[in-house]
Amino acid sequence: MKAEYDLSKMKSRRNPYASKLKKSVTMRLSEDVVQYFKSMATEAGVPYQSLINLYLRDCLAQNRKVEIKWPSAA
Fold it and tell me: What's the pTM?
């Protein structure tokens, strides 16, 4: 094995699987929700977007369903 390799002549190419890894989306989240995940992410040492992704992935893995109970109109 060489001690040093010359990579200057290599051609760069795009990762063909990169588009399948993650999809960019735009979401409107409440400021308190963003702050909650940002503070948790700081403690964990990860970006808050990754933390939100991990949380949603866990919801997917656990097959969690949303239960919304709207106040009834009187």
Answer: 0.65
